[in-house]
Amino acid sequence: MTTVGVLALQGSFNEHMAALRRIGVKGVEIRKEEQLQTVDALIIPGGESTTMAKLAHYHNLFPALREFASTGKPVWGTCAGLIFLANKAIGQKSGGQELIGGLDCIVNRNFFGSQLQSFETELSVPKLAEEEGGPNGFRGVFIRAPAILEVGPDVEILADCPVPLETKKSLMSVDNGQEEEMLVSRERVIVAVRQGNLLGTAFHPELTSDLRWHSFFLKMKKDSSERSLQHVPTSGTDLEDSLGKRPLDLPIYE
Asked: Region Disordered: which residues (predicted)?
């Protein structure tokens, strides 16, 4: 029986644990390095990425998290968890934050704006529908969400979404030159990707009653022939230079 760990330092880990229970899978809250040895897959939930990174650093979890991902066991990052898995992140707070790395992509940490700019939108998810059945649409819940700006050649894009007008207005109000101009010119951004054993979503599937993303994740099996992923950790200063039907039971946005 598959046992799934959920990093439980901060954020929406309870909601992921509840989703796992609903599909009959054992979930384990992960707060210590040794607990990672007891699970077959790992979810890194949404939350406040800087706070989560500080807590993970305090508990010396980053080396163990990188090692876990490099073994080929499935790892899924939602929202803040997506930021953790990215090789590069921009738009971070002063000093940046430590990353796990592994996903060959550049993430803008707070692309869609503040908590007040949180929103829901219908996403086209043909790969998810092909694998898990159901409609081609999925109701994405975006809460102070990141976006993926660029991906490498080995990254499979699973969903993108249009840039809301309010996001464009917010970006236009910040006068930081060429980077903001580039962001404002975008019509769509990537919000879900997979690379090998790593899955990343900028939105929160755990806040809906649609469990297809959790089922999709659980079917990502370890490929023993796959080479270990090369992680690009680290922080802040180096990264600033790089560039259908509405599901029911939404506990935050009914």
From this structure: 227-254
pTM of the predicted model over 0.70: yes
Q: Element (H or E) spanning 41, and its range?
A: strand 41-44
240 is in an annotated binding site: no
CA 203 – CA 192 distance, rounded (Å): 8
Catalytic annotation on 120? no
State the CATH class of domain 3-239: alpha beta
Catalytic residue among 15, 16, 79, 120: 79
- Say if residue 23 carries a ligand binding annotation: no
Q: Number of H helices and number of E strands within the chain?
A: 9, 12
Q: How far is CA 52 from the centre of its chain?
A: 13
Residues 138-177 pLDDT 10s = 999 999 899 999 999 999 999 999 987 776 666 655 545 4
